[in-house]
Amino acid sequence: MRELSMHILDLAQNSITAAATRIEIEVIADTKADQLTISIRDNGEGMTPEFLAKVRDPFTTTRTTRKVGLGIPMFEEAAQNCDGNLTIKSVPGKGTSLVGTFKLSHIDRAPLGDIASTLIALIAANPDIDITYTQQVDSRQFILNTERIKRKLEGVPINEGAVLNWLREYASENTSGELHIN
What we know:
By secondary structure, the protein is α+β, with helices and mostly antiparallel strands. It has one domain: Heat Shock Protein 90 (2-Layer Sandwich), CATH 3.30.565. It is built from six helices and six strands; from the N terminus they run H-E-E-H-H-E-E-H-E-E-H-H. Strands 3-4-2-1-5-6 form a six-stranded mixed beta sheet. Strand 3 and strand 4 (95-103) form a beta hairpin. Helix 1 runs antiparallel to helix 3 and helix 4 packs antiparallel against helix 6 (161-175). The longest helix has 15 residues, at 161-175. It is globular. The two termini are 26 Å apart.
C-alpha cells in the first residue's frame, strides 16, 4: 500500500469484522527519537493464542470469501522495511492491539496519506462504533473522539452528510501535512 492511512483502514476493518464496538487509533511521531508509531486497539473478539501465532502468515485468515489475509503481513513488512517492527497482543473476548513502529526519516517510509478520508470512511460506514483517533507530532496533539461528538450531536446521526462534511474538514485541518522531521 502506498499510504499508511490505507493500512490503518484495513486494520480497523479487521477490528470491525471482529465485532469491536470501540477502536482506538494512534499515530505518534517523535522527531527526537526519529520514530513513528501507529497503533490500533479494539475491544473485539480477540484471537486465540493458536490463531495469534499464525496471523502473520498471509495464508491465515478468518475470511470465507478468500484464502488470504494480507493486511497484517503487509503492515509488518512496511514497518520492517523502515527499520521497525510490529507487535500484536490479543486476548479472546477482550480485544486486540497492534503496534507498528517505523524509522520516521527512513527513505522507504510511506507517507501517512489522507487520514481524514480514512476516518470519514470508517465513521460513515460504522456510525455505531466509537472511534478515537489521536495524532501527535512531538508535543502537538489532535484527538477526534466519535463518542464525544455523538453526545454533542444530540440525536443527529454522525453519518449524516452535513456532519460528515464538517468532520472531514475538521480532520483535514488538523491532520494535514506530512510527518516531517523539523
